[in-house]
Amino acid sequence: MSDTRAHAAPALPSGLKDFLKTVLLLELWVGLWVTLKNQFRPHITVEYPKETVELSPRFRGVPRLRYHPDNGEELCIACHLCETVCPDDCIHIVSEKKPEGKGKRLVSFEINYERCCFCGLCVDPCPTKPLTAIYMSHDYEMADYKREGFVAPLKTLLDGMDPKDYKE
Amino acid sequence: MFRTEEMDINMGPQHPSTHGVLRLKLTLDGEEIVDVRPIIGYLHRGVEKLCEHRTYPMIEPLTDRLDYVAAISENLGYCGAVEKLMGLQVPPRAQYIRVILAELQRIASHLLWLGTHALDLGAMTVYFYTFRERELILDLFEQFCGARLTYNSMRIGGLLEDVPAGWTDRVRHFLGLFPSRQKEYEDLLTVNRIWLGRTRGVGILKADDAVAMGASGPTLRGSGVDYDVRRAQPYSSYEQFEFDVPTGTNCDTYDRYLVRMEEMRQSCRIIRQALDRLPEGEVRAKVPKYIKPPVGEVYHVVESPRGEQGFYLVSKGGEMPYRMRFRSPSFVNLQALPMMCRGQLIADVVAVIGSIDIVLGDVDR
Ligand code: SF4
Ligand code: SF4
To answer: How many angstroms separate the CA atoms of B133 and B344, rounded?
Structure first.
């Protein structure tokens, strides 16, 4: 059985040219030349906490909510659509009838970041115009010491997470 | 006087060269492999069952997590299956963009494979170079859909959004850069005598055996069988592109390496054609608000970087599938591993695992 290996071994080099190639370790020098070239290329890595890379406009970070651009209230109309489409059941909305006028308003809006998979499906059906009330933000630094810290209430969703002090 | 005894040892589930939680039970006679039994299931998440409790759009993020190295191919296959069942016609522009994405994904996946495969065999340098170029592709994906690994990049009926402005130029820029970079990997490996010694004649899988085991993708083509789903059953307008299907002759690890290297070149060729002929127009077909495919069943295959990725879907007319089944190429290709390893040395197992390019998320589902 083990002779499959011997059978298919590379053919022995023949002729002077091949002999020289073998003795001079030509293919090794070709490889080393590649390595040498790369020594002089610019760095592409960044020292993360000190520098960060630029995010593209469509980057999907944690989902957050927007304020209304005109009147500064929350934009969400409590239609529960994002809650319905979320594959991980991480959005929890409580709403009530508006006391005056028609429509509903938010009582509470929670996103459980522990369950969220950043799929962005919640943004698709959001009916508010011209901007969607819920959007995928560019925040991604969300480490925490406690699990409660991952359930974001309305205030956090609107204003963003407090900068954390990791030196606890 | 002297007596040799066969010995069982475990390789994995946490072994640096098994690329995930794969456990191999090796039966050894000295250094020679007598038998290998892959023991899988460490990453089983029950995705098929989960699908039965989710609406159709909600399943797409799950498919990202099957073959997480090539999530776009999974997205493409899944959306294709649902579209086939619903009889949706995807707009040509969306089809072309899907092809570009899928081929970029193939290059990215092969780069990851090349880096780790070479790393396993002791050629560490290639790893850094391939990851550098893979990063460029991931940047393109980030610009397109916002994520770098679990893309959720398509929607049933097309794409969520058109490509951002200037994206096609950046793809072209990458295509201009990539061939010279690929030559560098080849300089490091293709003629290197250590590489040849570790891969040539190792892990032979004869063409008949490969077909009998149901292997697909580069594992099958490395054995000289000329079969590619993109050409045999074209999807997403692959019939409009010109490309070659590379095949091997010696059925060994080295040939599988050559096949994948050539596939990267062919992928560049397909992307170039798609960019040149990118049609204008819509990127999403008219889809109903609630996606409810008619009663029926469908099987849709795509050529993922690992091979034939199948999606079998049974609908009873509701919002959720009645049954969803994934035919994953990694799982099937892994079954050919014992055949390739028998009679080889223990160090060759690492080379062979690398050459079939499994992803454990895809094996266990
Ligand atoms: S990103 Fe996905 S998982 Fe997260 S809240 Fe939105 S829909 Fe749910
Ligand atoms: S879909 Fe938009 S408007 Fe509706 S509840 Fe969610 S965030 Fe609010």
So the answer is: 33
CA atoms within 13 Å, Cβ hemisphere of B56: 28
pTM across the whole model: 0.85
- Domain ranges in chain B are 7-364
Tell me which CATH code domain B7-364 carries: 1.10.645.10
pLDDT tens for B239-256 read 888 888 888 888 888 888
Q: Which uninterrupted H or E stretch holds B28? A: strand B23-29
Alpha helices for chain B (secondary structure H): 47-51, 56-64, 71-86, 92-120, 124-145, 167-189, 193-199, 207-212, 218-221, 229-232, 253-276, 329-334, 337-341, 346-356, 360-364
Alpha-carbon distance of B349 to A29, in angstroms, equals 29
ipTM score? 0.77
Q: Which of B135, B143, B184 is the closest to A56 by Cβ?
A: B143
Q: Which among A1, A8, A87 is the nearest to B343, CB-wise?
A: A1
- Quote the minimal CA–CA distance from B58 to chain A in Å: 5
Q: Is B200 within 8 Å of A9 when comparing Cβ atoms?
A: yes
- Whether the CB of A147 is below 8 Å from some CB of chain B: the reply is no
Chain A residues with beta carbon closer than 8 angstroms to that of B191: 27, 30
- Do the beta carbons of residue A76 and residue A65 sit within 8 Å? yes
pLDDT tens profile A46-69: 888 788 888 888 888 888 888 887
Chain A nearest CA to B240, separation (Å): 30
